[in-house]
Amino acid sequence: MNARKALDLDWVRRQFPALATDEVFFDNAGGSQVYAGVADRIRDYLLTTPVQLGASYARSEEATAKVLAARRAVAAFINAPHDEAVVMGGSTTSLLFQFASALRSTIQPGDEVIVTDTDHEANVGCWKRLAEAGAVLKTWRVNRDTLELELGDLDALLTSRTRWVAMTQASNVLGTVNDVRAVADRVHAAGARLAVDAVAYAPHRLPDVAASGADVYVFSFYKVFGPHYAVMAVERGLLLSLPGINHFFIGPDDMPYKLQPGNVNFELSHGAAGIPEYLDAVAAHHGAGGMPRERWQAAYALFAAQEDALSARLLEYLRSKRGLRIIGRDRVARSDRVSTIAFVKPGTASESLVRHVDRARIGIRFGDFYASHLIDALDLRDLGGVVRVSMLHYNTLDELDRLIVALEGVL
Known about the structure:
- With about 400 residues, this protein is of the alpha/beta class.
- It has helices at about 10-15, 35-50, 60-80, 90-105, 120-130, 150-155, 180-190, 210, 235-240, 265-270, 275-285, 290-320, 350-360, 370-375, 395-410, and strands spanning about 25, 85-90, 110-115, 135-140, 160-170, 195, 215-220, 230-235, 325, 340-345, 360-365, 365, 385-390.
- The chain has 15 helices and 13 strands.
- Helix 11 crosses helix 12 (about 290-320).
């Protein structure tokens, strides 16, 4: 079979039962639709192995094997070097707070932590709490003219006291893809570590912990066609060195359990392993073969091509509207932005624009999307934040045209 160069959207959409209506879902950055195979796996676990792990009887051994296999599948999907250093939990926010809780005892007064003002609060608030242990927080601020995180500005913040830098791989408002590897190299050269929030990146580009250079890499499965659950990969030596936050008898070598109080959610872990299965199915349907990551990369390349086409059309329309302000890069070039597009109409409340579109059975959204510091830095609070249209590969140009028609009435 020759590999297809374009995504078979009819086939793709059949894999997501929730898309079988006339509603248009452009709030994907808030949570994607769920692949049917993921839901099937969750149902299978709950109906066949709803037992506690670690016992000697056969059903418990089967359940244990499923959960461990899921962790290995997730580790392979994100290219984490060691699956025992892959921590899973309820959300990106909860995992980062758990990590910061473990890290707190290692912080010395005067240690410096750098956060950005473009991040979701999940990757800001947990670090703020380290100030209680004496950490000094600095902010890597977005350039208000370019709307970029400039590497030169980071260089000016790094010192011999820097211990951590926390940043997003893709902004959930700007849509910008950041070069986290370049940042990791700078941070490590300064003797510090890097924490990367990949929540807004992973639905659009294949996650790669090893390539990112991050010491902590985290995102939520429910943004990537999966269950309401999340994963955090921690550099193995770092995780070994951290005190645990689990029961006192859970030893320091008991990874990742030491950072998973109450253990993982068994059925959601099993369900999350359906995400790489979806990528395999996409690759197979489109004639792509090779090793697993080659297949997954082929699937994501198809996703990116479809999403770039959607982004290009929407951005072209928005650029045609006099006075409208696009918050982020206003063109698609070399896949340097994801298909999350934010804008404002000066003098008009963002909520009023979204409420108008709601009537057309099209789901978009307004607000700060928990990137509160970015909205304030760009003086957008008085408008009620931005209007955000967040598209994924299963969205169609016909759906986008429906949105444009709806927007035309208010823009």
